[in-house]
Amino acid sequence: MLRDSKAFSGFSVGDIPAARAFYGEVLGLAVSEAHGMLTLHLAGDRDVLVYPKDSHIPAEFTVLNFPVPDIEAAVDELAGRGVRFELYDWVDDRGINRQGGPLIAWFRDPAGNILSVLEQAG
């Protein structure tokens, strides 16, 4: 029944206008708004629904990962746009995890949800 359904993911925020500014202007994503909800239009014809929730509590896990060919360049560009990377105990002073697995750096949206950029060839 659902095999051919074009499923999509979503997460909540407490402030749709702040999310629209962050995802559209800071991150440079294509966004649209309808029925009080925001849709992020990602590469590869993938959409993510961002919906308002008055009692929003930020996710304690990564809700959205952005593969990039060069993490150093991505971190520099995003930091230049005002994005602050999480400085966990296991990351370097730029917020990049170099402890195994793909190089990855985490940051938060205005609602406190965790996002990441991770280096991925191709």
Summarize the structure.
With 122 residues, this protein is of the alpha/beta class.
Ends: how far apart?
A: 33 Å
**Arithmetic mean pLDDT:** 95
Oligomer: single chain
Q: What fraction of residues sit in β-strands?
A: 35-45%
Strands in their spatial order, largest beta sheet = 1-4-3-2
Broad structural category = alpha/beta
- Helical percentage: 10-25%
Order of helices and strands: EHEEEEHEEE
| Strand elements, count | 8
- Unreliable segments (pLDDT under 50, ≥5 consecutive)? none
Count the DSSP helices: 2
Taking all Cα atoms into account, the compactness measure Rg is 15 Å
Verbal overview:
This protein has about 120 residues and is α/β, with parallel strands linked by helices. The chain contains two helices and eight strands; from the N terminus they run βαββββαβββ. The protein has a four-stranded mixed sheet, covered by helices on one side. A four-stranded mixed sheet has the order 5-8-7-6. It is globular, with a radius of gyration of 15 Å. The termini are far apart.
Helix and strand layout, with pairings?
Layout: E1 9-13, H1 16-26, E2 30-34, E3 37-42, E4 46-52, E5 62-68, H2 71-80, E6 96-97, E7 104-108, E8 114-119
Parallel strand pairs: 1-4, 5-8
Antiparallel strand pairs: 2-3, 3-4, 6-7, 7-8
